[in-house]
Amino acid sequence: MKNFLTLSALLISLNAFAQFPSVVTDPVSHARITEVIITSKNTLEQAKKTVSALEKTRQIITKVSNTVKQLELVTRTAHSQQVTIQRAEDAISFVKKSGQFSPAEINMIVYNFTNVITATNRTIALITSITQDGFFKMNDSERLQLLLDMNRRVSAGLHDVNRMFDNYNKIAGKRNMFSVFN
User: Fold this and answer.
1) Tell me: the pLDDT tens digits for 105-133?
2) How far is CA 92 from the centre of its chain?
3) What's the predicted TM-score (pTM) here?
């Protein structure tokens, strides 16, 4: 009976051991897994290089984009200056041809327009100086902010010239009507 119990215990334990999954090492499978791991590492390294290259490209594109924005701003400012000068010339010509202003008044009007044009010319000269000498010593944000401020100054000069032209036009019209009715 003792032998029977021992034999039964031995058979049960062998049967239980037989139920455990066994690990079979297959050299071909192991080689494939190693190959997949190496390929995955190489792919990951290539992806990191691609991300790095894309980041550099993004930085270059951002710099080009900022430069294009700044160029557009400088171009717009120069155009505003050109329109300001033309508008001032038209206003002075109108005042002189209207016959409604005395020579002293004409001199004062020309002086007023000259002051506005001189102020905007200083702004354009500063833009020119910055673009030639110190443009690249500033960071993009500083340069863009300065150009925006200068554009506002030139636009304000154009606004002043338009306002003065309108005022002198109204004065000439009133004086003309007054001379007709008197």
Assistant:
1) 989 999 998 988 988 888 888 877 776 66
2) 39
3) 0.62
